[in-house]
Structures are given as structure tokens and as C-alpha cells.
Amino acid sequence: MNNKIKNINFQKGVISILFSILILSLLMVISTSAFIVMFQQIKMSRQAGHSVVAFYAAESGAEKCLYQVRNKTGLGCDLGGVRTISETFSSQANYETTYNGTNEIISVGKYLETTRRLRLTW
User: Fold this and answer.
1) Nearest 5 degrees, angle CA 9-CA 11-CA 13?
2) How far apart (Å, rounded) are the C-alpha atoms in residues 77 and 30?
3) Choice among 39-43, 63-67, 76-80, 87-91 with the minimum mean pLDDT
4) Separation of alpha carbons 19 and 27, rounded Å
5) What are the pLDDT digits (tens) for 35-60?
6) HEC secondary structure over the chain
7) Are the C-beta atoms of 85 and 27 separated by less than 8 Å?
8) Measuring CA to CA, which of 25, 49, 54, 107 is 20 to 30 A from 97?
């Protein structure tokens, strides 16, 4: 009889351990999934910030070129023909702007690995 009680206690202990391992495994899968989702969201958020900086760099180049063309400054874009101006900012952002000589300005802004393109026509 004593042997049967020990056997039952042993089986209960094994079941408890297996149940605990199952619950811990499930918790690990859930927490790992949550971490992956949060990490991807952080990465996308950072890329969105880079996109904004690249867009504003492109806009800056387009505005500078448009100013030169409209005010006939004799600088960069206003020299006639197809002209390109470029500038690099201290924050690793830069732009390259091309004026086709008639009615279109194309400006490409870059920041780190992100590039944004802007086209002005009139």
C-alpha cells in the first residue's frame, strides 16, 4: 500500500512539472512575440523620422533652386540649361537639385539610408 501512495505522489509531481514547463513555454512564446512586434515598431518609427529629415532636405533644395530661378540670382540653378546644385548639412542630410531650364525642378533629399524625391513644376 505504501508503494502505491509513493507511485501516485510521483505521478502527481511529474504532471505538475510538465504542466509548469508547458505554462512557462507558453509565456516565453508570448513574451518573445511581443518583443519582436515592439522591436519592429521601434524600427519603423526610426525610419519614419529619417524619412521626414530626407523630405525636408529635398524641399530645402527645391526651394533654394526655385528662389534662384525666380529672382535670377545668377547662382547655381539660374545659370541656364540643365543645372544641378547640392548641399550637405551637418546632420548627415543632403540634397541634390536639378533644374531642367524650363519649368521643372527635381530635388532628391538623403538622410542616412533614406531617400526622398520632390518634383516642382509650374
Assistant:
1) 70
2) 57
3) 76-80
4) 12
5) 999 999 998 888 898 999 999 999 99
6) CHHHHHHHHHHHHHHHHHHHHHHHHHHHHHHHHHHHHHHHHHHHHHHHHHHHHHHHHHHHHHHHHHHHHHHCCCCHHHHCCCEEEEEECCCCEEEEEEECCCCEEEEEEEECCEEEEEEEEC
7) no
8) 49
Residue 103 has pLDDT above 90, yes or no: no
* 25, three cell numbers: 513555454
Average pLDDT over residues 94-117: 93
The residues, ordered by sequence, that sit 6+ positions from 68 with a Cβ below 8 Å of its Cβ are 75, 76, 77, 78, 85
Q: State the Cα–Cα distance between residues 122 and 120, nearest whole angstrom.
A: 7
Are 101 and 80 spatial neighbours (Cβ–Cβ below 8 Å)? yes
